[in-house]
Design brief:
It holds the Pfam family Citrate_synt. Helices cover about 60% and strands about 5% of the residues. The chain contains 16 helices and three strands. The chain folds into two domains: about 20-220 and about 340-355, Citrate Synthase, domain 1; about 225-325, Cytochrome p450-Terp, domain 2, CATH 1.10.230.10. By secondary structure, it is mostly helical. S-citryldethia Coenzyme A binds near residues 223, 225, 256 and 257.
Length: about 375
Amino acid sequence: MTTSAIHRGLAGVVVDTTEISTVIEETNSLTYRGYPVQDLAARRSFEEVAYLLWHGELPDADRLREFRARERALRPLDRSLSELLARLPATCHPMDVLRTAVSLLGAEDPAEDDGSPAANRAKSLALLARLPVVVAADHRRRRGLDPVRPDPELGYAENFFHMCFGTVPAPEVVRCFEVSLILYAEHSFNASTFTARVVTSTLSDLYSAVTAAIGALKGPLHGGANEAVMHMLEEIGSPERAETWLDEALAAKRKIMGFGHRVYKHGDSRVPLMQEATDRLVARAADPEATRLATLHAALRQAMLSRKGIHPNLDYPAGLAYHLMGFDTPAFTPLFVMSRITGWTAHITEQLAHNALIRPLASYAGPAQRPVPAAVR
Ligand code: SDX
């Protein structure tokens, strides 16, 4: 048995290779299948990025047309999912709704245990198409509204707004949402993706791996941070209170949501683009409340940088952007799931392609071996 050093949280530990993306800390950049994510977010649609992550190449016009047609045809929810949504309490967290919905889809899939690349690609596309319908229907039921059917004439991002709000906002709002989806799609061996790979490494099914990944992403140290950012801004209340609030929070050893990162130590490569998109939303809103929030958001960011030298991560601008788009705060992390389902399922396929059961060691720190005392009477 080896007695290697302990790496808590697996910080800095390389456990496998991947061809899907790389986070280049030195140059503070991120590439998906070799393409800089900033260029993809500026020039491509989320559907094209999903295709790229799954297939390794960007689709040509014919393949994109066929991909979009298949995604749109898969959107409609069948009755059992609609009935499930109606039965879950409106007080449960939207991530619990998503986790349960994926579990139901797996239970109903006769091919659940078929882990072939073709079967998993079909499941992945079905999840890409259906998760937004679940998130939108859940968003509306919490507001006492009936679901809005998906519209096969609309693109992925437009259709999501249509299903949530019954209307499609201005193109720059849709574009900001699409930028967030592209930036959230994939990030190498983050906690939820690694969770999906651990489950897949036992040769369990794709739905089990995705359900586990949703559970991991829900945590505020990971995907749950974008929701926590909004709660934090509401707690601070005004730009004038940002510094005092921060000093008190840091003194209380609180983690400031939306800041810091295990890999990026000089700033998350995705933040500048997301911040620009969020700034455009604020300018477009031309509304005192949006301006006040943006001022508070900037003040906290500056204070955190000056006091701790810690930069924001993607969740920090994304949380404000989703609020400005009109989404309810608890729905922010489900938006992350709608995007990261692409990265998760790409890694599931990759793990299966050259699988090794993931089973690390532990250094034992419990009691030395001892005899069991006689049973008490
Ligand atoms: C995501 O891995 C990915 O790629 C994740 C992600 C993806 O796309 O999948 O990028 C998405 O999960 C982004 C992270 C979202 N989480 C948050 O915003 C929650 C707040 N952040 C922190 O909890 C923290 O920064 C982590 C968890 C993100 C990273 O933690 P690390 O790498 O384990 O760093 P650390 O906790 O060891 O911090 C080092 C020091 C500590 O100070 P000391 O105890 O050594 O004095 O920096 C401090 C920390 O206290 N610190 C913070 C802080 N982040 C680090 N202090 C206050 N607030 C913070 N946010």
